[in-house]
């Protein structure tokens, strides 16, 4: 048998105080005499006692756990966002519980059921869309919901988006201003709201300019997708001289297809714009012009909103954060 875990009762006996006094000593803001607190802390240190926050949370209906529901956690942008979210949660005295899903709504539904089962206080959803009935179940169970780059109009949820449509419009304007006349859009087939909105903004700006664009869509939001799309687009007779890629990973693949497979010069023969500003975008081998996702602002807004949702259970809000265009060396200026 394993060694019995040190309990608050053990600390109380060694310190010569009540079990309640030990509980107060480890409760932020609780009133405990200075001498009593010192004896309790010394006893806890001697015994190696640690507060069981999970057990306390089950009693108080506040576990401090926040589910982070995400897919493609290995991608540079998603891993950066998860790192920022966990950092913000820890600073707020909460613990992030990562539930790794695929992109499907069904896997997100299963993840939310797991979050409810573990009595998490909140869920921050980065992937898929929860079914409306499941959303209602979460809210009835007191769980706060924050959706990042996802939409849900029900009360009790906060939707945080970035200005994807505006970025798509700006991407077209930049390529047109660079003198590109055969402009293309390279997109993943993942079909997320963010990718769709970037494409919508790009198409809108092209239509307003009276210019036709070439579109290519396939695969996940990966480097390989970009390599395949780039090879296909740049092998055409009407080869594009400007390409907007809806993610940086796709843009990196497109660039390598242009340079290594087709021996094209960037930006002299083809200009490329990405989206996300992942670490690789700033590498000298890419020096990619792109849009910077406000990762720190997204995380700060998401975690800070948990306080607002706890205070106002009927709160329903939508927040849109701006993105910044980062000019590097893949577009003529």
Automatic annotation (TrEMBL):
InterPro entries: HTH_LacI, LacI/GalR-like_sensor, Lambda_DNA-bd_dom_sf, Peripla_BP_I. Transmembrane segments: none annotated. Keywords: DNA-binding, Repressor, Transcription, Transcription regulation. Pfam families: LacI (PF00356), Peripla_BP_3 (PF13377). The keyword Membrane does not apply. Residues 6-60 form the HTH lacI-type domain. Gene3D superfamilies: 3.40.50.2300, lambda repressor-like DNA-binding domains. PROSITE patterns: HTH_LACI_2 (PS50932). It comes from the Bacteria. This is Substrate-binding domain-containing protein.
């Amino acid at each position: 048998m394993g060694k019995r875990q040190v309990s608050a009762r053990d600390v109380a006996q060694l310190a010569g105080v009540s079990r309640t006094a030990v509980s107060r000593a480890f409760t932020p803001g609780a009133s405990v005499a200075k001498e009593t607190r010192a004896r309790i802390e010394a006893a806890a240190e001697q015994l190696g006692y640690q507060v069981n926050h999970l057990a306390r949370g089950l009693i108080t209906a506040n576990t401090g756990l926040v589910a982070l529901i995400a897919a493609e956690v290995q991608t540079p942008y998603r891993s950066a966002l998860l790192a920022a979210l966990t950092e913000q949660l820890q600073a707020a005295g909460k613990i992030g519980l990562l539930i790794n899903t695929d992109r499907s709504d069904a896997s997100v539904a299963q993840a939310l059921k797991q979050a409810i089962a573990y009595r998490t206080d909140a869920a921050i959803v980065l992937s898929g869309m929860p079914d409306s009935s499941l959303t209602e179940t979460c809210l009835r169970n007191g769980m706060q919901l924050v959706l990042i780059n996802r939409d849900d109009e029900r009360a009790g949820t906060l939707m945080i988006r970035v200005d994807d449509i505006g970025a798509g419009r700006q991407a077209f304007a930049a390529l047109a201003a660079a003198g590109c006349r055969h402009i293309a859009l390279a997109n993943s087939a993942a079909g997320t709201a963010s990718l769709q909105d970037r494409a919508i903004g790009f198409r809108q700006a092209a239509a307003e300019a009276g210019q036709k664009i070439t579109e290519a869509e396939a695969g996940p939001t990966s480097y390989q997708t970009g390599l395949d799309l780039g090879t296909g687009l740049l092998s055409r007779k009407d080869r594009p001289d400007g390409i907007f890629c809806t993610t940086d990973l796709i843009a990196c693949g497109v660039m390598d297809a242009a340079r290594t497979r087709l021996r094209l010069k960037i930006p002299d023969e083809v200009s490329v714009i990405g989206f996300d500003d992942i670490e690789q975008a700033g590498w000298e081998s890419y020096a990619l012009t792109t849009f910077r996702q406000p990762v720190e602002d997204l995380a700060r807004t998401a975690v800070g909103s948990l306080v607002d949702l706890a205070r106002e259970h009927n709160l329903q809000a939508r927040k849109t954060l701006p993105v910044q265009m980062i000019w590097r060396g893949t577009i003529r200026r």
